[in-house]
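pinned: reference chain
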Amino acid sequence: MQLYLDQILVGWVVLMSILSFLLYGVDKYKAIHHRWRVPEQTLLLSAFLGGAPGALLGMQLFHHKTRKWKFRLLVPVALVLWIIVFGKIYCAGVPMEAWR
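pinned: its structure tokens
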């Protein structure tokens, strides 16, 4: 059962990362072409819902939102929170003695 839940979580993060990456790319394209933009709240929410790896990659690859302090701070915070979530889930069944 635990393996199944782990696979769902990994799949979720991969899916959200792809979505976040695409959102950053679309927003950059629309910014260049002076079109309707993806709201900043949507970009940040996608990172906090599991897409932080894709959001960071999109920020770097598209050179998008890299000067805004909100994104420079909050996207890495989202990534750290997801790393903590993965750590708690994957280390939950491992006794502390095994960590030494």
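why pinned: The chain has one domain: 2-99. The CA atoms of residues 8 and 14 lie 10 Å apart.
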